[in-house]
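Before relying on records like the one below, remember that each one covers exactly one chain. Contacts with other chains, cofactors or solvent are not represented anywhere in the record.
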Amino acid sequence: MTKIQARLSASLLALTFFLFVVLMDAPAWAHHPRNRIGLALVLRELSFSGGPLALAASLTEQWSERGKHVLATIGRYFVAVPVLFYSLEQFLHGDHVPGVPLEPLTPRYVYGHAIWTYLAAVVYTVAGILLLVGKKTRVAATWTGLTVLFVVLVVYVPIAVVERASLDNGLNYVADTLMFCGTVLLLAGAVPREASRRATSPNSPG
């Protein structure tokens, strides 16, 4: 937030979440490989690593352009794979909460109910494919992040209001999903615009 040692902070945050995946989440899921929620949590933590990693790459000036590109690409994949997996999960389980498809069902008091899960699934499918192939990455990440933010406002905020006495079922889901929104928007902010990328390409004319 203060932009003090931002590159170092982003690198350490990316490393922290990656270690969470390697040391905790992935081994826990490996013990129950049929547990789709366990896999969803592994990929969520992986995405939490991807956004800061892309930000760190964009702030790196001393390294070679190739090194920056490798880090940014890894960060993009760390976000793209979860987004694509979440799109499939949301199509298959439209009655569950959208954004990050976890175990809770969308409460009946949420206006629109399952429509938000299917809407997120559609956006995730298109954006996830673009992120995976590296086309229109900034636009894809931006629309994904805005979709998650919209989901937080129309689904998770009402849940937090109704479940305000419960940290697990109220604020916890708001915070986790909002963090997923933030990490995707970090990727969007770290990716150069398509026009700028073409202008600075070594093979561009002039």
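The chain has a mean pLDDT of 88.
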